[in-house]
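Good day; I would like, with your permission, to put a structural problem before you. I would ask you to consider whether the tokens describe a fold that such a sequence might reasonably adopt. The full record is reproduced below for your convenience:
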Amino acid sequence: MLARIQADQPAGYPYIFLPTQRYDHIQYRRQTGELQNHHRVCPVNNFTRVWLKILHHAGVRPGEFHDLRRTCLTNWLGKLSPYEVMHLAGHSDFETTQRFYLAVSTDLVEKARVASHANLDFGTRLSRAC
């Protein structure tokens, strides 16, 4: 959905959640010197507040925008190799991907559960035989 929205943006408008009128206003203020980078003011203005409002209206518990990236990368790990995910994420070091995104997959947990039950059953049968 985000890729579609970005593709629909007019040329020269890099932001998805920033209306074109707001972007034009920010660029105008930069050109006239009213808004300078050294002021360390975020030109997007209160993105977090808008993001939380979007989540609230969608009925989603509060979270960070970066949660979208985390979710996407975690989902990719179910379909792609960890090294492919590393490259798609733009990580230069596999350790970064491993530390932040290699969650234990559901199928691995299920395999461990089956193996544990098999071992418990074997142990029960062994103790009965003794």
Summary: Residues 64-130 form one domain. The CA atoms of residues 4 and 29 lie 29 Å apart.
